[in-house]
Amino acid sequence: MEGDVVEYRIDRQSGIPAYVQIVRQTEQALRMGVLRVGDKLPTAKEVVAATAINPNTVFRAYRDMEQAGLVRSRRGLGTFVTRSLARPGAEDDSPLRTEAAAWVARALAAGLERDDVLALVTAALDEHEHERSGRDDQGHEHHRQDENDPGDRGRKQEDA
């Protein structure tokens, strides 16, 4: 593919450096399966023309991704994807993506804004991670009893 697989968009109001935005957008495209191993990234010249950012910013993003093992630059040929981040179920055409898109549409229709939606998703992820790790917000361990494990249900639980 000739660099038309991903189109970078720079949000100058976000406070996030442009090179970080390029890296994150590339990682997202890799996770969603939009970019695949062997795909060519846009040239620095193409990114500069589309985003009006400094070429050194693009070079830094590409260098960071190369150091992370995501891409490889080939002098005179371009920068190519060398590793995928896609996981089953995360592809652009997956049922989970369809469900997520429907949920986002409902949230926006209910009057939530982008930051509200992101906050809800982040809170849900944080809650799920805490449950999986068995730790609360202060890092204290809590042992959840499996509902199928009878254990010693008569034992009094002490507060940690």
Please, could you describe this protein's structure?
- 14% of the residues are buried.
- The protein has 160 residues and is mainly alpha-helical.
- The C terminus is likely disordered.
- The longest helix has 20 residues.
- A two-stranded antiparallel ribbon has the order 1-2.
- The protein is 44% helix and 5% strand.
- The protein is globular, with a radius of gyration of 21 Å.
What is the residue-mean pLDDT, rounded to a whole number? 83
Largest beta-sheet details: 2 strands, antiparallel
Percent of residues in β-strands: 5-15%
Rounded to an integer in angstroms, the radius of gyration calculated over CA atoms is 21 Å
Helical percent range? Answer: 40-55%
Compressed to H and E, one letter per element, the order equals: HHHEEHH
Shape: globular
Q: What is the number of helical segments per DSSP (H or I, 4+ residues)? A: 5
Low-confidence stretches: 142-160
- Cα distance, first to last residue? 57 Å
Number of strands: 2
What spatial order of strands do you see in the largest sheet?
Answer: 1-2
| Structural class designation | mainly alpha
Write the layout of secondary structure elements.
Elements: H1 18-32, H2 44-51, H3 55-67, E1 71-74, E2 78-81, H4 95-109, H5 114-133
Antiparallel strand pairs: 1-2
Q: Which properties best describe this structure?
A:
mainly alpha, 5 helices, single chain, disordered C terminus, two-stranded antiparallel sheet, 5% strand, 2 strands, 160 residues
